[in-house]
Design goal:
With 421 residues, the protein is of the alpha/beta class. It is built from 17 helices and 13 strands. The protein has a seven-stranded parallel β-sheet, sandwiched between helices. Strands 7-10 form a two-stranded parallel sheet. The protein has a two-stranded parallel sheet with strand order 8-13. The longest helix is centred in the N-terminal third of the chain and has 22 residues. The site of NADP nicotinamide-adenine-dinucleotide phosphate has 29 residues, from helix 1.
Protein backbone atom coordinates (compact mmCIF):
# COMPACT_ATOMS: atom_id res chain seq x y z
CA UNK A 1 0.00 0.00 0.00
CA UNK A 2 1.43 3.40 -0.95
CA UNK A 3 1.68 6.18 1.64
CA UNK A 4 -1.29 7.99 0.07
CA UNK A 5 -3.75 5.14 -0.27
CA UNK A 6 -6.36 4.68 2.39
CA UNK A 7 -7.58 1.59 4.21
CA UNK A 8 -11.10 1.78 5.65
CA UNK A 9 -12.30 -0.63 8.32
CA UNK A 10 -16.07 -0.77 8.81
CA UNK A 11 -17.36 -2.29 12.06
CA UNK A 12 -21.01 -3.33 11.86
CA UNK A 13 -20.78 -3.80 8.08
CA UNK A 14 -23.97 -5.86 8.04
CA UNK A 15 -26.03 -3.12 9.73
CA UNK A 16 -28.13 -0.41 8.08
CA UNK A 17 -25.42 2.22 7.87
CA UNK A 18 -22.48 -0.20 7.81
CA UNK A 19 -23.74 -2.01 4.73
CA UNK A 20 -24.21 1.30 2.89
CA UNK A 21 -20.74 2.48 3.92
CA UNK A 22 -19.05 -0.52 2.34
CA UNK A 23 -21.38 -0.23 -0.65
CA UNK A 24 -20.38 3.40 -1.21
CA UNK A 25 -16.66 2.71 -0.80
CA UNK A 26 -16.92 -0.12 -3.34
CA UNK A 27 -18.98 2.18 -5.60
CA UNK A 28 -15.90 4.43 -5.63
CA UNK A 29 -17.23 7.25 -3.47
CA UNK A 30 -15.71 9.82 -3.20
CA UNK A 31 -13.61 8.82 -6.24
CA UNK A 32 -11.66 5.94 -7.71
CA UNK A 33 -8.28 5.46 -6.06
CA UNK A 34 -9.03 7.18 -2.75
CA UNK A 35 -9.32 3.87 -0.87
CA UNK A 36 -7.24 0.86 -1.87
CA UNK A 37 -8.56 -1.45 0.85
CA UNK A 38 -11.86 -1.96 2.67
CA UNK A 39 -12.21 -4.34 5.60
CA UNK A 40 -15.81 -5.17 6.53
CA UNK A 41 -16.30 -6.58 10.03
CA UNK A 42 -19.47 -8.35 11.17
CA UNK A 43 -20.55 -10.25 14.25
CA UNK A 44 -22.84 -12.93 12.84
CA UNK A 45 -21.31 -15.16 10.16
CA UNK A 46 -22.34 -14.21 6.64
CA UNK A 47 -21.01 -15.07 3.17
CA UNK A 48 -19.77 -12.38 0.85
CA UNK A 49 -22.24 -13.59 -1.79
CA UNK A 50 -25.08 -12.75 0.61
CA UNK A 51 -23.96 -9.14 1.01
CA UNK A 52 -25.05 -7.87 -2.44
CA UNK A 53 -22.21 -5.37 -2.66
CA UNK A 54 -20.90 -4.31 -6.09
CA UNK A 55 -18.80 -6.89 -7.93
CA UNK A 56 -15.05 -6.36 -7.79
CA UNK A 57 -13.40 -4.72 -10.78
CA UNK A 58 -9.87 -3.37 -11.31
CA UNK A 59 -10.86 0.03 -9.90
CA UNK A 60 -12.64 -1.07 -6.72
CA UNK A 61 -10.73 -1.23 -3.45
CA UNK A 62 -9.73 -4.73 -2.31
CA UNK A 63 -12.45 -6.02 -0.01
CA UNK A 64 -11.96 -8.35 2.95
CA UNK A 65 -14.98 -9.59 4.91
CA UNK A 66 -14.18 -10.68 8.47
CA UNK A 67 -17.15 -12.33 10.17
CA UNK A 68 -17.64 -13.69 13.66
CA UNK A 69 -16.06 -10.76 15.55
CA UNK A 70 -18.09 -10.36 18.75
CA UNK A 71 -16.86 -7.12 20.28
CA UNK A 72 -18.46 -7.81 23.64
CA UNK A 73 -15.74 -10.26 24.57
CA UNK A 74 -12.34 -9.38 25.99
CA UNK A 75 -10.58 -6.02 25.83
CA UNK A 76 -8.78 -3.87 23.27
CA UNK A 77 -5.54 -5.86 23.52
CA UNK A 78 -7.38 -9.14 22.95
CA UNK A 79 -9.22 -7.66 19.98
CA UNK A 80 -5.94 -6.32 18.58
CA UNK A 81 -4.32 -9.75 18.87
CA UNK A 82 -7.25 -11.44 17.21
CA UNK A 83 -7.59 -8.86 14.41
CA UNK A 84 -3.91 -8.80 13.51
CA UNK A 85 -4.02 -12.48 12.59
CA UNK A 86 -6.77 -11.74 10.03
CA UNK A 87 -6.49 -8.10 8.98
CA UNK A 88 -3.70 -5.77 7.83
CA UNK A 89 -4.57 -3.63 10.83
CA UNK A 90 -1.35 -1.59 10.69
CA UNK A 91 -2.39 0.04 7.42
CA UNK A 92 -5.84 1.16 8.66
CA UNK A 93 -6.38 4.89 8.10
CA UNK A 94 -10.15 5.23 8.62
CA UNK A 95 -12.41 3.59 11.21
CA UNK A 96 -16.18 3.71 10.64
CA UNK A 97 -17.99 2.38 13.69
CA UNK A 98 -21.62 1.33 13.07
CA UNK A 99 -22.11 -1.30 15.78
CA UNK A 100 -25.04 -1.22 18.14
CA UNK A 101 -26.60 -3.84 20.33
CA UNK A 102 -29.91 -3.41 22.14
CA UNK A 103 -30.06 -4.56 25.77
CA UNK A 104 -33.24 -4.55 27.90
CA UNK A 105 -31.69 -2.64 30.78
CA UNK A 106 -30.78 0.94 29.76
CA UNK A 107 -27.68 1.28 31.89
CA UNK A 108 -26.43 -2.12 30.81
CA UNK A 109 -27.06 -1.10 27.21
CA UNK A 110 -24.85 1.94 27.69
CA UNK A 111 -22.11 -0.12 29.42
CA UNK A 112 -22.11 -2.88 26.77
CA UNK A 113 -22.02 -0.52 23.80
CA UNK A 114 -19.40 1.66 25.42
CA UNK A 115 -17.14 -1.33 26.09
CA UNK A 116 -17.44 -2.54 22.49
CA UNK A 117 -16.41 0.85 21.10
CA UNK A 118 -13.64 1.12 23.68
CA UNK A 119 -12.24 -2.26 22.55
CA UNK A 120 -12.16 -1.05 18.95
CA UNK A 121 -10.48 2.27 19.77
CA UNK A 122 -7.95 0.61 22.08
CA UNK A 123 -7.09 -1.99 19.44
CA UNK A 124 -6.45 0.65 16.78
CA UNK A 125 -4.56 2.87 19.22
CA UNK A 126 -2.22 -0.08 19.75
CA UNK A 127 -1.82 -1.24 16.18
CA UNK A 128 -2.82 1.42 13.63
CA UNK A 129 -0.13 4.13 13.50
CA UNK A 130 -1.56 5.54 10.25
CA UNK A 131 -5.02 6.18 11.72
CA UNK A 132 -6.46 9.50 10.48
CA UNK A 133 -10.18 9.54 11.26
CA UNK A 134 -12.90 7.82 13.28
CA UNK A 135 -16.60 8.40 12.49
CA UNK A 136 -19.71 7.04 14.21
CA UNK A 137 -23.46 7.71 14.15
CA UNK A 138 -25.32 8.95 17.18
CA UNK A 139 -29.00 9.59 16.64
CA UNK A 140 -32.07 11.31 17.89
CA UNK A 141 -32.40 8.07 19.88
CA UNK A 142 -29.91 6.81 22.43
CA UNK A 143 -31.77 4.53 24.75
CA UNK A 144 -35.30 3.40 25.47
CA UNK A 145 -35.74 6.27 27.94
CA UNK A 146 -34.32 9.13 25.99
CA UNK A 147 -31.94 10.07 23.23
CA UNK A 148 -29.67 12.61 21.64
CA UNK A 149 -32.49 15.14 21.22
CA UNK A 150 -34.97 13.56 23.59
CA UNK A 151 -37.44 12.34 21.00
CA UNK A 152 -38.19 9.26 23.10
CA UNK A 153 -39.72 11.46 25.78
CA UNK A 154 -43.45 11.91 25.00
CA UNK A 155 -43.82 15.13 23.04
CA UNK A 156 -40.01 15.46 22.65
CA UNK A 157 -37.83 17.79 24.71
CA UNK A 158 -36.72 20.55 22.35
CA UNK A 159 -38.53 22.86 19.95
CA UNK A 160 -37.63 22.01 16.33
CA UNK A 161 -35.74 22.43 14.12
CA UNK A 162 -33.35 20.34 16.22
CA UNK A 163 -29.87 21.84 16.25
CA UNK A 164 -26.56 20.21 17.08
CA UNK A 165 -25.85 22.29 20.18
CA UNK A 166 -29.09 21.14 21.85
CA UNK A 167 -27.60 17.74 22.74
CA UNK A 168 -25.54 19.45 25.43
CA UNK A 169 -28.72 20.55 27.20
CA UNK A 170 -30.27 17.16 27.89
CA UNK A 171 -31.67 16.85 31.41
CA UNK A 172 -28.93 15.30 33.57
CA UNK A 173 -30.96 12.29 34.72
CA UNK A 174 -31.25 11.34 31.05
CA UNK A 175 -27.59 11.81 30.26
CA UNK A 176 -26.53 8.60 31.97
CA UNK A 177 -28.77 6.57 29.67
CA UNK A 178 -27.26 8.10 26.51
CA UNK A 179 -24.43 6.00 25.13
CA UNK A 180 -23.38 8.65 22.60
CA UNK A 181 -22.24 10.89 25.47
CA UNK A 182 -19.96 8.07 26.55
CA UNK A 183 -18.64 7.63 23.00
CA UNK A 184 -17.72 11.31 22.90
CA UNK A 185 -15.81 11.12 26.18
CA UNK A 186 -14.02 8.01 24.98
CA UNK A 187 -12.95 9.54 21.67
CA UNK A 188 -11.95 12.86 23.20
CA UNK A 189 -9.64 11.10 25.63
CA UNK A 190 -8.21 8.61 23.12
CA UNK A 191 -7.53 11.17 20.37
CA UNK A 192 -5.85 13.69 22.63
CA UNK A 193 -2.31 14.34 21.38
CA UNK A 194 -2.79 11.86 18.50
CA UNK A 195 -2.76 12.70 14.81
CA UNK A 196 -6.24 11.29 14.25
CA UNK A 197 -9.51 13.09 14.81
CA UNK A 198 -13.20 12.16 14.80
CA UNK A 199 -16.78 13.23 14.18
CA UNK A 200 -20.32 12.09 14.94
CA UNK A 201 -23.35 12.19 12.66
CA UNK A 202 -26.89 12.42 13.95
CA UNK A 203 -29.64 10.79 11.85
CA UNK A 204 -33.29 10.42 12.82
CA UNK A 205 -35.04 7.47 11.10
CA UNK A 206 -32.59 5.60 8.87
CA UNK A 207 -33.82 4.00 5.69
CA UNK A 208 -31.60 1.35 4.19
CA UNK A 209 -30.90 -2.20 3.14
CA UNK A 210 -29.46 -4.89 5.41
CA UNK A 211 -28.74 -8.36 4.06
CA UNK A 212 -29.10 -10.08 7.43
CA UNK A 213 -32.10 -8.44 9.12
CA UNK A 214 -31.70 -5.55 11.54
CA UNK A 215 -32.73 -4.61 15.05
CA UNK A 216 -34.38 -1.28 14.19
CA UNK A 217 -35.10 -1.17 10.46
CA UNK A 218 -38.41 0.59 9.86
CA UNK A 219 -37.98 0.09 6.11
CA UNK A 220 -37.68 -3.69 6.51
CA UNK A 221 -40.53 -3.78 9.03
CA UNK A 222 -42.95 -1.94 6.77
CA UNK A 223 -41.67 -3.59 3.56
CA UNK A 224 -42.37 -7.08 4.90
CA UNK A 225 -45.81 -5.94 6.08
CA UNK A 226 -46.75 -4.33 2.77
CA UNK A 227 -45.32 -7.24 0.80
CA UNK A 228 -47.44 -9.81 2.69
CA UNK A 229 -50.48 -7.51 2.61
CA UNK A 230 -50.21 -7.24 -1.17
CA UNK A 231 -49.67 -11.01 -1.49
CA UNK A 232 -52.75 -11.77 0.63
CA UNK A 233 -54.77 -9.51 -1.68
CA UNK A 234 -53.49 -11.26 -4.81
CA UNK A 235 -51.20 -8.50 -5.90
CA UNK A 236 -47.96 -9.66 -7.49
CA UNK A 237 -44.49 -8.24 -6.79
CA UNK A 238 -44.36 -4.64 -7.92
CA UNK A 239 -47.40 -5.04 -10.18
CA UNK A 240 -50.34 -2.68 -9.91
CA UNK A 241 -53.54 -4.61 -9.22
CA UNK A 242 -55.79 -4.04 -12.22
CA UNK A 243 -58.36 -6.80 -12.13
CA UNK A 244 -60.18 -6.06 -8.89
CA UNK A 245 -61.01 -3.00 -6.84
CA UNK A 246 -57.95 -1.11 -5.63
CA UNK A 247 -56.72 -2.49 -2.34
CA UNK A 248 -56.31 0.07 0.41
CA UNK A 249 -53.88 -0.17 3.29
CA UNK A 250 -54.12 2.20 6.25
CA UNK A 251 -51.16 4.02 7.77
CA UNK A 252 -50.28 2.04 10.92
CA UNK A 253 -50.64 4.89 13.36
CA UNK A 254 -52.73 7.90 14.34
CA UNK A 255 -53.44 11.22 12.66
CA UNK A 256 -51.03 13.28 14.75
CA UNK A 257 -48.20 10.94 13.90
CA UNK A 258 -49.08 10.83 10.20
CA UNK A 259 -48.95 14.64 10.10
CA UNK A 260 -45.90 15.38 12.24
CA UNK A 261 -42.76 16.69 10.56
CA UNK A 262 -39.47 14.79 10.58
CA UNK A 263 -36.23 14.41 8.61
CA UNK A 264 -35.49 10.86 7.42
CA UNK A 265 -32.06 9.89 6.12
CA UNK A 266 -31.24 7.16 3.64
CA UNK A 267 -28.28 5.03 4.67
CA UNK A 268 -26.61 6.04 1.40
CA UNK A 269 -26.69 9.72 2.36
CA UNK A 270 -25.36 8.98 5.85
CA UNK A 271 -22.59 6.75 4.47
CA UNK A 272 -21.57 9.37 1.94
CA UNK A 273 -21.41 12.10 4.53
CA UNK A 274 -19.39 9.97 6.95
CA UNK A 275 -16.87 9.32 4.17
CA UNK A 276 -16.94 12.98 3.09
CA UNK A 277 -16.33 14.15 6.67
CA UNK A 278 -13.45 11.73 7.08
CA UNK A 279 -11.83 13.16 3.94
CA UNK A 280 -12.15 16.69 5.37
CA UNK A 281 -10.73 16.32 8.89
CA UNK A 282 -9.99 20.02 9.33
CA UNK A 283 -13.51 21.09 8.45
CA UNK A 284 -15.40 18.15 9.98
CA UNK A 285 -13.14 16.68 12.71
CA UNK A 286 -12.37 17.73 16.29
CA UNK A 287 -15.35 15.83 17.65
CA UNK A 288 -17.97 17.82 15.77
CA UNK A 289 -21.56 16.65 15.53
CA UNK A 290 -23.52 16.97 12.26
CA UNK A 291 -27.22 16.41 11.75
CA UNK A 292 -27.87 14.38 8.62
CA UNK A 293 -31.01 13.87 6.50
CA UNK A 294 -31.89 13.50 2.83
CA UNK A 295 -33.51 16.89 2.48
CA UNK A 296 -33.72 20.17 4.32
CA UNK A 297 -37.48 20.18 3.73
CA UNK A 298 -39.03 17.90 6.36
CA UNK A 299 -41.62 15.29 5.42
CA UNK A 300 -44.61 13.48 6.97
CA UNK A 301 -45.14 9.75 7.35
CA UNK A 302 -48.72 10.20 6.21
CA UNK A 303 -47.54 11.46 2.80
CA UNK A 304 -44.69 8.98 2.45
CA UNK A 305 -47.07 6.10 3.21
CA UNK A 306 -48.98 6.67 -0.04
CA UNK A 307 -45.82 6.30 -2.12
CA UNK A 308 -44.57 3.26 -0.20
CA UNK A 309 -47.90 1.47 -0.55
CA UNK A 310 -48.00 2.28 -4.27
CA UNK A 311 -44.69 0.49 -4.87
CA UNK A 312 -46.42 -2.70 -3.69
CA UNK A 313 -49.46 -2.09 -5.91
CA UNK A 314 -51.54 -0.94 -2.93
CA UNK A 315 -53.38 2.28 -2.25
CA UNK A 316 -52.14 3.93 0.93
CA UNK A 317 -54.66 5.81 3.02
CA UNK A 318 -54.65 7.75 6.26
CA UNK A 319 -54.95 6.22 9.74
CA UNK A 320 -57.98 3.95 10.24
CA UNK A 321 -60.98 6.11 11.26
CA UNK A 322 -61.76 3.62 14.00
CA UNK A 323 -58.49 4.34 15.82
CA UNK A 324 -59.18 6.05 19.15
CA UNK A 325 -55.50 6.67 19.56
CA UNK A 326 -55.29 10.29 18.49
CA UNK A 327 -53.52 11.74 21.51
CA UNK A 328 -49.82 12.09 22.12
CA UNK A 329 -49.40 10.24 25.38
CA UNK A 330 -47.81 7.10 23.97
CA UNK A 331 -44.20 6.27 24.65
CA UNK A 332 -41.81 4.30 22.43
CA UNK A 333 -42.94 0.66 22.44
CA UNK A 334 -46.49 1.46 23.64
CA UNK A 335 -49.53 0.73 21.51
CA UNK A 336 -53.18 1.75 21.88
CA UNK A 337 -55.59 -0.97 22.94
CA UNK A 338 -57.85 -0.50 19.93
CA UNK A 339 -55.10 -1.26 17.40
CA UNK A 340 -56.14 -4.08 15.12
CA UNK A 341 -53.22 -6.08 13.79
CA UNK A 342 -49.91 -4.20 13.85
CA UNK A 343 -47.38 -4.64 11.01
CA UNK A 344 -45.26 -6.83 13.31
CA UNK A 345 -48.21 -9.05 14.24
CA UNK A 346 -49.27 -9.29 10.60
CA UNK A 347 -45.78 -10.38 9.53
CA UNK A 348 -45.62 -12.93 12.36
CA UNK A 349 -48.98 -14.37 11.32
CA UNK A 350 -48.35 -14.63 7.59
CA UNK A 351 -44.59 -14.94 7.23
CA UNK A 352 -44.87 -18.58 6.09
CA UNK A 353 -45.88 -17.15 2.71
CA UNK A 354 -42.30 -15.95 2.26
CA UNK A 355 -40.88 -19.46 2.55
CA UNK A 356 -43.65 -20.96 0.40
CA UNK A 357 -42.83 -18.48 -2.36
CA UNK A 358 -39.08 -18.95 -2.53
CA UNK A 359 -37.99 -16.34 0.03
CA UNK A 360 -36.85 -18.40 3.06
CA UNK A 361 -34.37 -15.69 4.07
CA UNK A 362 -37.28 -13.32 4.68
CA UNK A 363 -38.31 -15.50 7.62
CA UNK A 364 -34.95 -15.72 9.34
CA UNK A 365 -33.64 -12.27 8.39
CA UNK A 366 -36.40 -9.93 9.49
CA UNK A 367 -36.52 -7.28 12.18
CA UNK A 368 -35.10 -8.26 15.58
CA UNK A 369 -35.23 -6.54 18.96
CA UNK A 370 -36.98 -3.40 17.70
CA UNK A 371 -40.18 -5.08 16.48
CA UNK A 372 -42.58 -3.63 19.05
CA UNK A 373 -40.94 -0.25 19.03
CA UNK A 374 -41.26 -0.07 15.24
CA UNK A 375 -44.95 -1.01 15.55
CA UNK A 376 -45.41 1.95 17.85
CA UNK A 377 -43.70 4.51 15.55
CA UNK A 378 -47.08 5.64 14.19
CA UNK A 379 -48.43 6.33 17.68
CA UNK A 380 -45.79 7.99 19.80
CA UNK A 381 -43.97 10.16 17.25
CA UNK A 382 -46.83 12.65 17.21
CA UNK A 383 -44.76 15.83 17.47
CA UNK A 384 -42.62 17.78 14.98
CA UNK A 385 -38.97 16.76 15.25
CA UNK A 386 -37.37 17.98 12.04
CA UNK A 387 -33.68 18.72 12.08
CA UNK A 388 -31.70 21.75 11.03
CA UNK A 389 -29.27 20.93 8.21
CA UNK A 390 -27.55 24.32 8.33
CA UNK A 391 -24.28 22.97 9.70
CA UNK A 392 -24.28 20.04 7.27
CA UNK A 393 -24.70 22.38 4.33
CA UNK A 394 -21.99 24.70 5.62
CA UNK A 395 -19.60 21.74 5.54
CA UNK A 396 -19.93 21.76 1.75
CA UNK A 397 -21.77 18.42 1.59
CA UNK A 398 -24.75 18.51 -0.74
CA UNK A 399 -28.09 16.97 0.20
CA UNK A 400 -31.28 17.37 -1.72
CA UNK A 401 -32.66 13.94 -2.25
CA UNK A 402 -36.34 13.01 -2.49
CA UNK A 403 -36.88 11.18 0.83
CA UNK A 404 -39.12 8.56 -0.82
CA UNK A 405 -36.28 7.59 -3.16
CA UNK A 406 -34.27 6.01 -0.31
CA UNK A 407 -37.26 3.83 0.61
CA UNK A 408 -37.90 2.67 -2.91
CA UNK A 409 -34.23 1.88 -3.60
CA UNK A 410 -34.19 -0.07 -0.34
CA UNK A 411 -37.31 -2.03 -1.32
CA UNK A 412 -35.59 -2.99 -4.62
CA UNK A 413 -32.65 -4.35 -2.64
CA UNK A 414 -34.92 -6.27 -0.24
CA UNK A 415 -36.57 -7.92 -3.23
CA UNK A 416 -33.21 -8.73 -4.82
CA UNK A 417 -32.07 -10.36 -1.57
CA UNK A 418 -35.32 -12.32 -1.16
CA UNK A 419 -36.39 -10.47 1.99
CA UNK A 420 -39.77 -9.55 0.49
CA UNK A 421 -41.96 -11.06 -2.22
N1 LIG B 1 -31.89 2.22 12.72
C1 LIG B 1 -32.18 3.50 12.84
O1 LIG B 1 -33.22 3.98 12.30
C2 LIG B 1 -31.26 4.44 13.61
C3 LIG B 1 -31.64 5.77 13.73
C4 LIG B 1 -30.78 6.68 14.36
C5 LIG B 1 -29.56 6.23 14.86
N2 LIG B 1 -29.21 4.93 14.76
C6 LIG B 1 -27.91 4.54 15.33
O2 LIG B 1 -27.06 3.98 14.34
C7 LIG B 1 -26.17 3.02 14.96
C8 LIG B 1 -26.25 1.73 14.18
O3 LIG B 1 -27.58 1.24 14.29
P1 LIG B 1 -28.27 0.40 13.15
O4 LIG B 1 -29.73 0.60 13.26
O5 LIG B 1 -27.53 0.64 11.86
O6 LIG B 1 -27.98 -1.07 13.69
P2 LIG B 1 -28.19 -2.44 12.96
O7 LIG B 1 -28.69 -2.30 11.57
O8 LIG B 1 -28.93 -3.33 13.88
O9 LIG B 1 -26.67 -2.94 12.88
C9 LIG B 1 -25.93 -3.14 14.03
C10 LIG B 1 -24.58 -3.71 13.64
O10 LIG B 1 -23.89 -3.97 14.86
C11 LIG B 1 -23.33 -5.26 14.76
N3 LIG B 1 -23.23 -5.85 16.09
C12 LIG B 1 -24.23 -6.05 16.98
N4 LIG B 1 -23.75 -6.67 18.08
C13 LIG B 1 -22.42 -6.84 17.86
C14 LIG B 1 -21.37 -7.43 18.63
N5 LIG B 1 -21.59 -7.96 19.83
N6 LIG B 1 -20.11 -7.45 18.10
C15 LIG B 1 -19.88 -6.93 16.87
N7 LIG B 1 -20.83 -6.35 16.10
C16 LIG B 1 -22.09 -6.33 16.60
C17 LIG B 1 -24.28 -6.06 13.91
O11 LIG B 1 -23.58 -7.14 13.37
P3 LIG B 1 -24.32 -8.53 12.98
O12 LIG B 1 -25.40 -8.17 12.00
O13 LIG B 1 -23.22 -9.29 12.37
O14 LIG B 1 -24.85 -9.07 14.27
C18 LIG B 1 -24.66 -5.02 12.86
O15 LIG B 1 -23.72 -5.01 11.82
C19 LIG B 1 -26.63 2.92 16.42
O16 LIG B 1 -25.80 3.71 17.22
C20 LIG B 1 -28.04 3.44 16.38
O17 LIG B 1 -28.47 3.96 17.62
C21 LIG B 1 -30.01 4.01 14.14
Amino acid sequence: MSEDSKHAIVYGASGIIGWALVDQLLSLYPQAGTFSKVTAVTNRPIDLSDMYWPEADPQTPALQLVSGVDLRHGDGAALANSLKTKVDIESVTHVYYLVFTAVDDNLEEVATNRQMFRNVIDAHSLLSPRLEFVAFPGGTRASKLTNGYGIYAPGGIFTPPLQEDMVNNLPSDYAKTVVYTEYRKLLNAASEGQKWTWCEVCPDAIIGFTPNGSQFSLALHWAQYLSLYAYNHSIGPGVQNTKSALVEVSFPGNIASANSLFSPASSKTIARFMIYASMHPKKCGSGQLFNIADNEVPCKYGELWLRLAKWFGLVGKGPAETSQAQDNTFKAGELPQDTSMTPGEYVAKYRDAFAKNGCPNAVSRGVGAGNRQLDSVGYWLTFDRQMSLKKLKESGFEVDKDPAQGWLETFEMFRKAGLIL
